Amino acid sequence: MSAQQGEDFGPWLGRQLRRASKSQAELAQHLDLTRAAVSAWITSRSEPREEVKRRIAEFLGIDVASLHNRTADVVAKLPLEWHHRPAHADGGREYGNAAAFAFNADLAVLAREATQNSLDERHDPSKPVRVHYTLHELSGGHLDSFLEALQWDKLRPHYDKAASAEQKVSRSLRAALDDLDRTRSLLLLRVDDYNAAGLTGPEYSDGRFAAVVRRQLDSHKQSGKRAGGSYGLGKVTLWATSRFGLVLMNSTLSIPHEGRTERRVIGRLDLPWRTVDKTAYAGPAWFGEPDTTQSHKGVSRSWWADEESVRGLQLERSNAETGTSFLIVGAHDASGDAESLEEMHEKLVRSLADGFWAAMIGGDRAGALLEARVTTLRNGRVLVPEQQVNPHTHHPALSRALKAYLDNETVTERTAGDQVASVEVPLFVTPLKGEGRAQGKGARHSAVLLLTRAEGEERTNRVACMRGNRMTILDRRPRDLPLGTDAFQAVLLAGHATENEGEDVDLAEQFLRASEPPEHHKWDRTEELTSLYQRGALSRISEFLEEIDKAVRELVGRREIGHRGGPSVLKELLKLDGAAAGSRRAQGVPTVRSINAQLDDTGAWHVSVDIKLPNAEDPWLLTPVAKFDVRSGGRPAVEWSLLSPAKNCDIENGNLVVPPGMRSASFIGVTDPGSHPVQGRLSRLVVDVQKARGGVA
Questions:
Q1: Is 241 helix (H, G, I), strand (E, B) or coil?
Q2: Nearest-CA neighbor of 138 among 75, 189, 102?
Q3: Which residue, among 218, 141, 220, has the nearest Cα to 184 in the 3D structure?
Q4: The dihedral of CA 401, 402, 407, 413: what is its sign?
Q5: In this structure, what are the phi and psi dihedrals at residue 384, rounded to the nearest 5 degrees?
Q6: Cα atoms found within 13 Å of the Cα of residue 418, Cβ hemisphere only
Q7: pLDDT in tens, 286-307
Q8: β-strands 471-476, 462-467 pairing
Q9: Which helix (H) or strand (E) holds 472?
């Protein structure tokens, strides 16, 4: 990393004077200058001459080089301390942070929200954000050293008092303290991001630092129009995942603050209202250096830590790349799904893969947005080795579909198993209130639906819908799928996830974001949607979801060429009765285009047949007949429990009717297990499509 740029002289000098407990008047007297001259330096209206700077260094007791470089505080290293917010003067009390109850204290929720925030703060858009989740269990001397660095002995009285109340948060704190005392072990979870902006900005006024450390419900997204979050709630999951409501932070800044970028450190604690030594405290507390400004005197502010301090606080970063490390003290998974370290490790890997597999895919049109890995330690030793999250391992079909899109390798109609079909899905964006009446339904945005064959995933026939930074917003099963549909996976890209540009893309992104609740897990009615957009906005969302389902049905109706095996190899699944000699034979006969069959749990055969038809002036009238190809004797016919048209045909009285001029048709059949002479798994099914009386053959 390049050398840090020195801070402006005036603010730096003012802070050194405060740290040394010296006034501007005392400096002016030492220099034999007016108080106004020193004030002009502090406010950056002027800067002293070189010989005066040497005398200033003498007054502060520092070397002249430090005064010229101004990359560090050089006066009076202040002691670290916890500052607890005093109770409200009006008697108000908060027994916990209400924002924390917006989410479950679940590792999957943490991975989703924290990683989304990292993605939203990507610094160099040409490179992916890299996130690293590290579980670290401390015990024995390792635990004692960490608690000493944290000044646990000064915190414990506050915890004991906060845990003595009868509220929900207090009871949870009591259980956490009892477990710590009994087991003498503590689980830390560190979330590191690299190539992120870091906690930039001033200590108290607007900026990323204040939004995360000092405020609630301040989203302060500066990542342009791709930001996934919008409520400012996601960061609270860090504190919610801590049994002690305690998070430490170490940030490397993309924009210097006070002339520095590396190791900006602070801690924040969220506790209920409490009384300690007859003094009442409101709730939150901060760990850092005492502020020396008059307006914030005594408040703990961030400090520029040395390498030894960040090691002691388990906040050491692997390199000087911009980003932030969040250390969750007393991490847990309140869902109960993961209790051991190994289970928690696996849940983090799975959650990152489920929520952000798409952000990890790159291609010709756009590179990967994210890389993620998980490591588990015990007292500094590796317990579970570092595991890179591979989207192709966890979601192979979905990953293949998105990769094909980013490489411009999709097709309009699948003709082979691994191909990815692509179709546009319209989304109409209602205008904002006050922008005049919409022309028609509003601005049209073309979202993109990708569909491909599934590869044995547990949940198939679903659509993963996303926008912005490609975080999965909702995962839904389309309605009214044809019976016997081949297993598929689909991806819906909307807004900036399409990697397209244009006003419609920006409008769609904002519209969909407004329709998402704090969890960002669906597109539906929200207060923001109904209050910002004109009437009809919710209808446009509903219509969009219906269009997604319609597009899926259209794509799965275009059967791919190929055969799939069931419990037994399915041969001669379709036989077409030959035509009599004459003009009909000269024009050709129907042929098999694709066949798929499988057994269900009841023993019924589900068969889907796609037929290629010669051009004909009359309708084709065909009768599907199901037979069992048993080992001996003739082929007994079995009954259909269901015959259903799929494409370009109708079913009338058990016959398949194909209108004139149709070159293809498909139908679905389900056999009746009650008519089977033997169990379906012990037989081979044969389907004859025979000429019906009066039909074309």
A1: coil
A2: 189
A3: 141
A4: positive
A5: -125, 120
A6: 6
A7: 999 988 777 888 899 999 998 9
A8: antiparallel
A9: strand 471-476
Q: What residue has token string 């975080």?
A: 471
Q: How far apart are the C-alpha atoms of 286 and 494, rounded to whole Å?
A: 41
For residues 329 and 452, what is the distance between their CA atoms, to the nearest angstrom?
43
Give the span between the Cα atoms of 597 and 645, in whole angstroms: 16
Structure letter (DSSP) for residue 635: -
Helix (H) / strand (E) element for 492: namely strand 488-493
Measured distance CA(77)–CA(60) in Å, rounded: 13
Q: What are the tens digits of pLDDT across the range 411-420?
A: 988 877 789 9
34, burial (CB in 10 Å: exposed 0-12, middle 13-18, buried 19+): exposed
Q: How far apart are CA 176 and CA 399, in angstroms?
A: 41
Angle at Cα 263 formed by Cα 262 and Cα 269, nearest 5°? 145
Count of residues making up the chain: 697
Six-digit token string for 243? 């049994």
pLDDT tens digits along 631-672: 555 678 889 888 888 888 888 888 888 888 888 888 888 888
Helix (H) or strand (E) holding 426: strand 421-429
Q: How far apart are CA 384 and CA 378, in angstroms?
A: 9
Query: Is residue 195 left, alpha or beta, with left meaning phi > 0 and alpha meaning psi from -120 to 50?
Result: left
- Calculate ∠ Cα 207-254-269, nearest 5°: 50
C-alpha separations of 397 from 417, 485, 489 in Å: 11, 16, 6
Three-state SS string across 279-345, please? Answer: EEEEEEEEEEEECCCHHHCCCEECEECCHHHHHHCCCCCCCCCCEEEEEEEEECCCCCCCCCHHHHH
